[in-house]
């Protein structure tokens, strides 16, 4: 199960010491060496400094990335500031628009991290994505024919998230399940966790059968219920299957054409339709698949952000979250790119 991001609001300099301490504690879960922890502290300090100097409504999304193959820390800096007119120039040491800055920020962040990407639009704001891996671990070496990213954030004020995501990728394809427990808080999180646990043990290649199995699982039926969507990508057969129950929105973008997938009404664990048909389509290089829980408004449009589709999926997910999060519920955005 993918863990959720921790949201830090960076709008007041008096809270920066607390933010740095909490992110340092998160990084401590990843078995970084002392010098790597020191580098993370520098990156966090530079990101916070940039948000306070230049940004409006700055925030950081932070999570650990730990699995059997690698461990690391991911940080996404988001703001509604003026944007960066020339990204290449902004990454050159000594270049700054602030009188009290040495202009070393973005360049230093890039040097000290394993993954560094920036998307910015004048008048819209900026998103900076960084990942720091333990030792020489690096996800780029996997060379898969697809990549995915997700932003999962609890409702403001909640410590646990009622949204959940399970992803398993390999050279043959991917098995993905997005879950949204009814409501929010611990009981919603329990519903999502139980369904995700059942999905992880399931090997069926029929999305409808999987949904029915989840619905009938006793541990799921003991919860308040959830909505969820199954996404199965088979690179060998060249087929993608997708089906959902409830109000998780799913969208395919390919060659400028948008296709929305309708979910069935119902609640997994309580009541689902007796008749459902599986939706499938061919795998095509360049496809972009995006799924959002109902904590995200549905009127987002990536065409208003030219060039963003070329970026890391987490940049895309963060952009949708930035502008369309309702802030009244848990919020999730999943982005899958077929390469």
TrEMBL record:
Location of the PPM-type phosphatase domain: 145-338
Pfam families assigned: HATPase_c_2 (PF13581), SpoIIE (PF07228)
Swiss-Prot/TrEMBL keywords: Kinase, Serine/threonine-protein kinase, Transferase
Keyword Lipid metabolism: no
Protein's UniProt keywords contain Transferase: yes
GO molecular function, one term: protein serine/threonine kinase activity
Protein name as catalogued: Serine/threonine protein kinase
Species whose genome carries this gene: Deminuibacter soli
